[in-house]
## 1
Amino acid sequence: MHKLYVFAFFITATMVSLLIVQPAQAISNNLVISQVQIGSETSATDEFIEIYNGSSSDIEITNWCLYYASASSSLFGSKMACFLPQNNSVHLFLPAYSTVFAISNELSAKIPELKSDIKFSATLSGSGGHVRLLNSSGVGIDKVGWGTAVSAEGAKPAIVPLSGQILSRKIIDASILQDTDINGDDFESVIPKEKYTYGSIYEVVDICTNIDGIQVKTPDGYNVDALGNCYLTVVDVCINIEGTQQITPLGYKIIDDKCMLDLLPLRITELLPNTIASDDGNEFIEIFNPNASDIYLTNYILYISSSGTKYGFPVGSHIDAGQYLAFSNDDIKFTLINTISGVSLYSIDNQLIDETPNYENPNEGEAWAKINENWQYTNRPTLSGENMVSLIHTEETILPYSELEPCATNQYRSPETNRCRLIVSSSSTLAPCKDGQYRSEETNRCRSIALDVSSLTPCAEGQERNPATNRCRSITSVLGANDLVPCKEGQERNPETNRCRNIVSAIPLADYAPEQKSENVNNIILWWSLAAVGGVATIYGIWEWRQEIINFVKKVKLKIVNKV
């Protein structure tokens, strides 16, 4: 039972101790009234009030005011002084951890060297009263009540300061003041500071008083009038169009700072200036729509360069997507001259859409058309259709009569080739051919053996190559077959080739057979020539594949070394 009493006593003592603990100190994080001098030892009108910004940010105090109310009043009371700007474009700011100093007019007159931020008429009562700080909207920011004040913060007024002392907020640490919203706890009676500062307030000019917030510079796209009002700058984006357009109008695009019609492209594809019959109603200009949508031609015009005249299209004219459409000179009263001219397509605001190169003197019925991206004449005009190239007209050609020129006195005509050959007499000596060459029996000229061998076509089955002429001949003719077909009338058999040849009666035959000198081709020279050609080819192959051969030899050598 005794233990129960002890436990109850302990609990009760703990609760009582909690009730009598002093409230924790609160720091000021806003503007507060930091000091108040109600009067001095020498005069009751020696009054001043200090305000302190205990926050870490600059605070605007434009049009904030100090008020005084008697000890018995619960109202704001009368206005003492306000922080007023020069005009409504100026905003006043108190920097963080800075003070404002306000003094009475009487104190200022008594001590002229004591400067302040604002002044007020002495009105504070020594026995009790209230000083309030209200913002520009009339909202209370801080309040100090002392002595017999009935509306002090926390319903506990600060004590009346002793003679020669002032009311001062308790200092927690350096620039931190106590603010528990209980005046009796937050203030104490202290001796005034030796020095008070003023002039911390700075001004910020609002460039645009008619716009919410503070603009320290003119916003982009705005102008400022004489009254300090900012208004959006009106920019006419279409200086070439009557009126003011602040945005690009629908259906337009900006080209070189001008608003131009945003038209889809069209192409001029064909002109028919010189018709076979009358030009009336037969001349035409063809236009192609390469776009995926239909186009009305209201905003397009034609320009004929020869006359310098512009023509609009018939009302309601339009071209379907992917369509070729021709307009005759009945549809539009244009004239295409037959000498030289061209046609252009413009928008009604003078944009060049397309143009043709000039045609020059087209034939009758010929169209000037764009075919495969090239302008050319065509004898197949295609009215409202895809263009086509000209048809080629073939005409019968009469060849001129020709006859053989007679050969020179030291030549004769070959019956096989109708060419003149040199008559080789016994007294003439031919220069021997070079190594790797042989003399042709037909021309008596030296020819390359290797070139002839490489260029000869293999003989057909049942044939062999004649070593004398390098021509293919029937094996049966070599074996002595006597079943030769008789030559036709006007032909004779060549004793050398057993072929039929025409009898050239116009050429007189010599009374003697021309002596032909020929040198037998040495087979050994032929084989040496072939060997030389093969050697050159082998050397060239080794040179071309030298790097591969070197790499191969290295690989083989490396394998042999590894095996060893």
Note: The CA atoms of residues 15 and 21 lie 10 Å apart.
## 2
Amino acid sequence: MGTSSPPESSDRRSPNNLPILGNDKVSLVELKILANRMLPRNSILRALILSELDYLPKVEARVKAEVYARLLHEEIARDIR
């Protein structure tokens, strides 16, 4: 997992409910833990999330969260077929 030093924390959350840290950084740590526990090892979404840095700028994290949601829906649809 990619890491970077954690910025100052706060109780604020982004529109996607990701924790917002000082300097408008968002922690992906909880998402990465969830992906590691819940998604199958062959999941492209899992690999993508786990490859991210632990902290991203808020704008970048929001865009990526939208992509993750689309990939999750695609993986669920494929699993159902």
Note: The first helix runs from residue 29 to 38.
